[in-house]
Amino acid sequence: MGAKISFLGTGDAGGVPRYGCECPACLRAQSEPRYQRRQSSLLIESGATRVLIDAGLTDLTQRFPPGSLSAIVVTHFHPDHVQGLLHLRWGLGKKLPVFTPPDPEGCADLYKHPGMLEFRTLKVFEPLCIGELQFVPLPLIHSKMTFGYAIEDTDARRFAYLTDTVGLPELTEEFLLNWQAHAIALDCTHPPRTAAARNHCDLTLALTIAEALKPSKTLLTHIGHTMDAWLMNNEENLPAHVSIAHDLLAIEDSLMSGATGGSG
């Protein structure tokens, strides 16, 4: 049986609705919870292995009973990707491995007071096995040291998680072209912009990456409220192999080949 992928959050740091905003996307999300976006994170399950990618959700202690996670894998130490660890660390019981890029600054006092968290540093392109899943850390382009992950299950199904980034470094693109992911989840924080994208992809850059890598399926994530507002009138114009991830989207078995999912 292949892996199950669940998008726990698909928003940028401010989420949707953005506090105080009255744009069409934020007003819609205020009245219809299915359009809300929390901070981007992903749960991958394969057999008894359960790995959380990023820990920006602040209710992790309610979502995951003690012992229910095999590990947490962090893309980078910006607060919207690790702030849930600030609460989780004070738990009791068995140490929980947290795999991270080699960022000496970390976030706040997590290194000084890790509590039940056991931080372990990863190296670029050096595979990490967690139970039934393998993760290869890939360098991305962001304002803080950031890794994407090439993930493979025991059935050799391949999925790449690529957020937060603005474009891809040459070595990462070369790796992914050779690796041939079946599907990717890709940063697309902004709608098409005339100015050069900074720190995060806009749609134009995201589609360029998707076209270069040619996975069977591309899901856009880390969506900002301006991107959601743009999608309200333009989503039907996306290429057939590109779709928009949303919170609670669950993908079973075949790593997005013919995937279905919905909000709960």
CATH classification class: Alpha Beta
Query: Could you name the ranges where pLDDT drops below 50 across 5 or more consecutive residues?
Result: 256-264
Largest beta-sheet details: 7 strands, mixed
Structural class, by secondary structure, is alpha/beta
Name the CATH superfamily assignment.
Ribonuclease Z/Hydroxyacylglutathione hydrolase-like
CATH architecture: 4-Layer Sandwich
Q: If strands are numbered along the chain, what order do they take across the biggest sheet?
A: 6-5-4-3-2-1-14
Secondary structure: helix percent: 10-25%
Helices, by number, come to 7
Radius of gyration: 17 Å
Q: Overall pLDDT, averaged?
A: 94
The span between the termini is: 23 Å
What are the main properties of this structure?
264 residues; alpha/beta; Metallo-beta-lactamase, Chain A; 7-stranded mixed sheet; 7 helices
Could you explain the architecture of this structure?
- Residues 256-264 have low confidence and may be disordered.
- The chain has a single domain (4-247), classed as Ribonuclease Z/Hydroxyacylglutathione hydrolase-like (Metallo-beta-lactamase, Chain A, 4-Layer Sandwich).
- By secondary structure, the chain is an alpha/beta fold.
- It has helices at 24-31, 60-63, 79-82, 85-88, 170-179, 203-213, 225-234; strands at residues 4-9, 41-46, 49-53, 71-73, 96-100, 117-121, 128-130, 133-139, 147-152, 158-162, 183-187, 217-221, 242-244, 250-251.
- The longest helix has 11 residues, at 203-213.
- The protein is globular and about 50 Å long.
- A hairpin with a 2-residue loop joins strand 7 and strand 8 (133-139).
- The strands form 2 sheets. Strands 6-5-4-3-2-1-14 form a 7-stranded mixed beta sheet, with no helix packed on it. The chain has a 7-stranded mixed beta sheet with strand order 7-8-9-10-11-12-13, with helices on one face.
- Helices cover 19% and strands 25% of the residues.
- The protein contains 7 helices and 14 strands.
